[in-house]
């Protein structure tokens, strides 16, 4: 019988507070946003990323990687027979917003996210799928019950993409049980986010691990 | 956990099939064909140091995940978590629908692109990096 795999809302808020405390120490820009009546709230992070646009690459350059353009090429003087070197155009910068909310029905945290270009155009679900790390794509596509869907944000009422939480307990329980066996203090949010975040392009810096250890 | 009496084995490159995968298989016959970049052979590895290209990883199972008969592996520093997960999955003969997670410090899942060398520098002790792995049906 599984026990203690759920976290209550108070624990959720406490874990978020500890998480944000470390985030502030390392400049990771997570913040807490209370709901209008301040009874609950969520964690939020905004992150900008340059999206690789193959059609913009100038001849002879291999564009690779999603997160940065080779800076040397961006500032290179154009030669006679080349097109002008692309600078990151506004349409290539994507704004990602990640929200961590508490789900009362599942009693677990849930990751909501949305992405848009700087001109406000939202990314489509297709764009989002393309952004999922290769490592997870096959598995996510296999399971209709644990995928990325679009839902209304419970607090903001706007459409967001959501990583479905129904299997959260399945991967969190072994970790929590294992840690409890050795009396190790684990921040549920840190562990959980380290697992689900990379699926949608959110990678936690390793210093979050050390922060948890120091709390022991 | 006490030091393993068995030898430290070289992790084959990701393209290799990674051994029989049966828990009761003895270490001597899990060696696949020797790849070009790393000698795959049983035998005692000298203690991994900071300047060595390979680091020692000790793999520990969590929950009801099958325990690998060979727990200690010498892995190139540049091997990613994704590569390591793929290897363990093949070694344990997990099906595609089963997800395997690797944890550092027993609680934190490094991202798939994270290099084990970096993790060793941050969390290694006594000349090795301890990683816990856990099987789950979590994703699709």
UniProtKB/TrEMBL annotation, chain A:
GO cellular component, one term: cytosol
Subcellular location: Cytoplasm
Protein family (similarity comment): Belongs to the ATG10 family.
GO MF term set: Atg12 conjugating enzyme activity
Keyword Repressor tagged: no
Protein purpose: E2-like enzyme involved in autophagy. Acts as an E2-like enzyme that catalyzes the conjugation of ATG12 to ATG5. ATG12 conjugation to ATG5 is required for autophagy. Likely serves as an ATG5-recognition molecule. Not involved in ATG12 conjugation to ATG3. Plays a role in adenovirus-mediated cell lysis.
GO terms (BP aspect): autophagosome assembly; autophagy of mitochondrion; ER overload response; protein modification by small protein conjugation; protein transport
Protein name per UniProt: Ubiquitin-like-conjugating enzyme ATG10
Keyword entries, A-Z: Autophagy, Cytoplasm, Protein transport, Transferase, Transport, Ubl conjugation pathway
InterPro entries: Atg3/Atg10
Recorded superkingdom: Eukaryota
